[in-house]
Amino acid sequence: LIEIASECKNLEIKYFLERIRDNMxxxxxxxxxxxxxxxxxxxxxxxxxxxxxxxxxxxxLLIEIASECKNLEIKYFLEKIYNKKNELINAIKNNDxxxxxxxxxxxxxxxxxxxxxxxxxETASEYGNLExxxxxxxxxxxxxPHYNSRIINALHKACKNNHLxxxxxxxxxxxxxxxxxxxxxxxxFFGNFExx
Length: 196
Hints:
Elements: H1 2-7, H2 11-22, H3 25-34, H4 38-46, H5 56-68, H6 72-93, H7 97-108, H8 114-126, H9 130-140, H10 147-160, H11 164-172, H12 180-190
Helix pairs in contact: 5-6, 6-8, 8-9, 8-10, 10-11, 10-12
């Protein structure tokens, strides 16, 4: 269905279907947390067996589930991941290039944490930090699965906050130029006519 939506240039449906596909692993992970299959949970999250994309809200949800199930080992394991991601996001929000570069160099050795890369691009887009967007986007563009669907999120945030330089950069560097239509829709929706 995703391929059909892409061929028909129905990018909204394509994006929706990609998000459903990308979230199917969550039920399995939640069951493992509830059943104290800690080794399985850690391998799933740390391992590069799958290219998973765990965002902040998902990590918080999993922390709550682990807490409710009194699975303290997984709760603390997930909190450690959450806090590390939060440090990077705060560095991006504060435009702390030195700290972002530190996280970037640390991340370069371990590309399996896709959500951190996507979160960095999206947050930098939201705050208009073009230098940080370029740092992550140029380094990882060719290696990221579902690249365009996640860059739509970055475009959404850049349009919403009227960061024209970020929008132009992301559009010029998208893999499939058919996605540009979504940018115009986002700009219209948020009333940022300068971007159109």
